[in-house]
From TrEMBL:
Primary location class: membrane
Localization per record: Cell membrane; Endomembrane system
Transmembrane segments: 6-26
Signal peptide, first to last residue: none
Top-level taxon in the UniProt lineage: Bacteria
Pfam families hit by this protein: NicO (PF03824)
Taxon lineage: Bacteria, Pseudomonadati, Pseudomonadota, Alphaproteobacteria, Rhodobacterales
Native source organism of the sequence: Pontibaca salina
Protein name: Nickel/cobalt efflux system
Family, per entry: Belongs to the NiCoT transporter (TC 2.A.52) family.
Membrane topology: Multi-pass membrane protein
Keywords from the named record: Membrane, Nickel, Transmembrane, Transmembrane helix, Transport
Length: 46
């Protein structure tokens, strides 16, 4: 069963593209500047 966002007939391409996007997003999300920003936001006093 294919999702609404996948191109018809592009199973391998769509899967590879999704996996690449997920991996690059994960790398981007764990950059030191993002970790520091999240740390600063969670440590702020109300």
């Amino acid at each position: 069963m294919r999702g609404n966002y996948l191109l018809p007939g592009g199973g391998v391409f769509s899967t590879g593209l999704a996996l690449t996007a997920f991996t690059l997003g994960l790398r981007h999300g764990v950059d030191p500047d993002h970790i520091a920003a999240i740390d600063n936001v969670t440590r702020r006093n109300p």
